[in-house]
């Protein structure tokens, strides 16, 4: 995004290059216009990768499930692609590691899962997509606004995405940094609005960002994607961007060292946007958290909202109920499993199967 292309001086417009150079020169030394070194976003990426490696270590597919993909990885091999096509751990492992399980949050007083789920990922594919996007967007934003503001934007947006997800996706385990990443996109968009006077090509930039967000939210209606976390993160980041990413307007930068009366650092519209956004943000967190811990099901108050996260077609189903099966053991270590959702059954010769192994077979039958 380029700085404002022209400024009125002595009744004539300066060229775009002169204006940009003048603005950067006059803004030098002001905290809002420092050039920061990006270190926090790369640390976030490393932390997510480390957590995924630990999750795979705990998963231990060869011992707990037996039916694994990429067996040569040993303890770090993935669950069967029929169970987890993203090349990752089992749902039981994700729940153990802190995945967003609404029942445990509400009835088990495990509210920390609203934060921990943002550091877990369903598989290698999920991790790569989120981390590459985070690096592409986050590093640039941290250089421009510093690690404190971008760190807060990332963490709070992820928390906001978890709240909306918990209100509407009541039965599935939800994980991923997508809500936080969408929060950075929301912050980028609101930052243009609140710092309107310093940018050129504003309309083109806004349209581009809106299209990027729309395409990604459109992909979120595919099965297995938590689009509520995306929308919650984006909305939280959009409001938070007005609060955290505000900058002095062009006139103050231009005249801050001039003798005589100086203009206000921020324009009136910036103050209004800052105040209104902060109030909406506080209201969202208060109402959302109260509703969540009172076990409110958002779907009962919005009968069509589930279509925002998954649209059923002839190719796939949007049934998000967790896999549930009945099991019976017969002579000869023969285990019979029946999925309660679709009635499919399977018989397996297994000696003392673990809970993880039974759950893995149940998930495959219920797909």
The H-level CATH homologous superfamily of the largest domain, spelled out, is Rhomboid-like
Strand content: 5-15%
Instruction: Count up the helices.
Output: 14
Helix content: 40-55%
Order of helices and strands: EEHHHEEHHHHHHHHHHEEEH
What is the total number of structural domains? 2
The backbone outline, from C-alpha atoms, is elongated
Radius of gyration (Å):
25 Å
- Distance from first to last alpha carbon: 45 Å
Task: Provide a quick synopsis of the model.
The protein has 14 helices and 7 strands.
Q: Mind sketching the topology for me?
A:
Layout: E1 8-9, E2 12-13, H1 16-27, H2 40-59, H3 61-64, E3 68-69, E4 78-79, H4 91-97, H5 102-106, H6 113-116, H7 124-145, H8 147-168, H9 178-194, H10 202-219, H11 227-244, H12 250-255, H13 268-293, E5 325-330, E6 334-339, E7 345-349, H14 355-366
Antiparallel strand pairs: 1-2, 3-4, 5-6, 6-7
Helix pairs in contact: 2-7, 7-8, 7-9, 8-9, 8-11, 8-13, 9-10, 9-11, 11-13
Explain what this protein looks like in three dimensions.
One of its GO terms (molecular function) is serine-type endopeptidase activity. It comes from Arabis alpina. One of its GO terms (cellular component) is membrane. This protein is mainly α. The protein folds into 2 domains: 28-308, Rhomboid-like (Rhomboid-like fold), CATH 1.20.1540; 325-366, no CATH class. The protein contains 14 helices and 7 strands. The chain has helices at residues 16-27, 40-59, 61-64, 91-97, 102-106, 113-116, 124-145, 147-168, 178-194, 202-219, 227-244, 250-255, 268-293, 355-366; strands at residues 8-9, 12-13, 68-69, 78-79, 325-330, 334-339, 345-349. The strands form 3 sheets. Strands 5-6-7 form a 3-stranded antiparallel sheet. The model is unreliable at 1-24 (pLDDT under 50).
């Amino acid at each position: 995004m380029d700085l404002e292309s022209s400024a009125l001086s002595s009744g004539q417009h300066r060229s775009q290059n002169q204006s940009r150079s003048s603005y950067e020169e006059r803004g030098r030394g002001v905290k809002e216009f420092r050039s920061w070194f990006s270190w926090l976003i790369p640390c976030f990426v490393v932390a997510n990768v480390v957590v995924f490696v630990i999750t795979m270590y705990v998963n231990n597919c060869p011992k707990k499930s037996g039916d694994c993909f990429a067996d040569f990885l040993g303890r770090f091999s993935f669950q069967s692609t029929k169970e987890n096509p993203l090349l990752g751990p089992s749902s039981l492992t994700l729940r153990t590691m802190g995945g967003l399980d609404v029942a445990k949050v509400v009835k088990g007083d495990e509210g920390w899962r609203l934060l921990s789920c943002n550091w877990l990922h369903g598989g290698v594919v999920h991790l790569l997509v989120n981390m590459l996007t985070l690096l592409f967007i986050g590093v640039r934003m941290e250089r421009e606004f510093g690690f404190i503001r971008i760190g807060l934007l990332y963490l709070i947006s992820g928390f906001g995405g978890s709240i909306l997800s918990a209100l509407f996706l009541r039965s599935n385990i939800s994980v991923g940094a997508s809500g936080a990443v969408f929060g950075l996109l929301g912050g980028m968009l609101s930052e243009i609005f609140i710092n309107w006077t310093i940018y050129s090509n504003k309309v083109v930039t806004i349209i581009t960002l809106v299209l990027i967000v729309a395409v990604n939210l459109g992909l979120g209606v595919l099965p297995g994607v938590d689009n509520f976390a995306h929308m919650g993160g984006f909305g939280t980041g959009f409001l938070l961007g007005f609060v955290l990413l505000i900058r002095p307007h062009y006139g103050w930068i231009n005249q801050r060292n001039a003798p005589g009366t100086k203009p206000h650092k921020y324009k009136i519209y910036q103050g209004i946007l800052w105040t209104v956004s902060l109030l909406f943000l506080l209201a969202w967190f208060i109402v959302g958290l109260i509703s969540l811990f009172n076990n409110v099901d958002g779907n009962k108050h919005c009968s069509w909202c589930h279509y925002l996260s998954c649209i059923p077609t002839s190719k796939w189903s949007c049934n998000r109920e967790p896999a549930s099966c009945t099991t019976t053991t017969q002579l000869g270590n023969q285990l019979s499993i029946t999925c309660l959702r679709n009635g499919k059954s399977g018989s397996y010769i297994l000696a003392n199967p673990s809970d993880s192994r039974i759950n893995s077979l149940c998930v495959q039958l219920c797909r």
